[in-house]
Amino acid sequence: xxxxxxQKTFATxxxxxxxxxxxxxxxxxxxxxxxxxxxxxxxxxxxPAELQGWTSPTTGTALANTTDLNAVVLTPGxxxxxxxxxxxxxxxxxxxxEPGGKVSWGGMVAFxxxxxxxxxxxxxxxxxxxxxxxxxxxxxxxxxxxxxxxxIGKMVDFSLPAGRSVIQLSGSGKPxxxxxxxxxP
Length: 185
Hints:
By secondary structure, this protein is mainly beta. The protein has helices spanning about 5-20, 30-40, and strands spanning about 60, 75, 80-85, 85, 105-115, 115-125, 130-135, 135, 140-145, 155-160, 165-170, 175-185.
C-alpha cells in the first residue's frame, strides 16, 4: 500500500516509464506501410504497357463447372472481373490444392495459350490459384506481388503448353475477382 506523496510520485513515474518502454513504436512517414498509404492515390498509378489491360476489365461470371469451357475464355492482356460462386457450388476440373471452406468463393475460367511458353496469371484478390491442363495441375515457376498501388495482388508464372488450360480460383474471401493473363517473353 502506497502511503506517502513521495511513494505515489515514484509509483506514477515507474508506471509511466514502463509504458514508454513497453509501448510499440509509433509509425512514421518513413515506414513502408505508411509510405504505401500516403503514395497510393486512385487513378494515379501508371502501369507498364503489358499491364495496361488491367485498368479496364470486362465483367462476367466465372464457370461453376467444366460443362462449357467456351463460355468464359480469357483474352491475353485483357482483365476480367469475374463474379465467383460459393465453393460448395463449384465442380472443379481438378480438386484445388486449397479449396477453401463453405463460406469462401471460387470459379474457373479458360485460357488458350497460342504457343507454348511462360504465362503470368494475375489476381486482384487473395485466393488460391491452380492451372489445369489435360487433367493435370501445372506447377508454377515464379511468384511475385503486383506493382504497388495497382490493385494486382498476386502474379504467378506458369510454363504452359499450347492450347486450352483451365484457371481455377478457390478459397477467396470475396465474391468477385479480377484476373488477367499475359505472355512473358
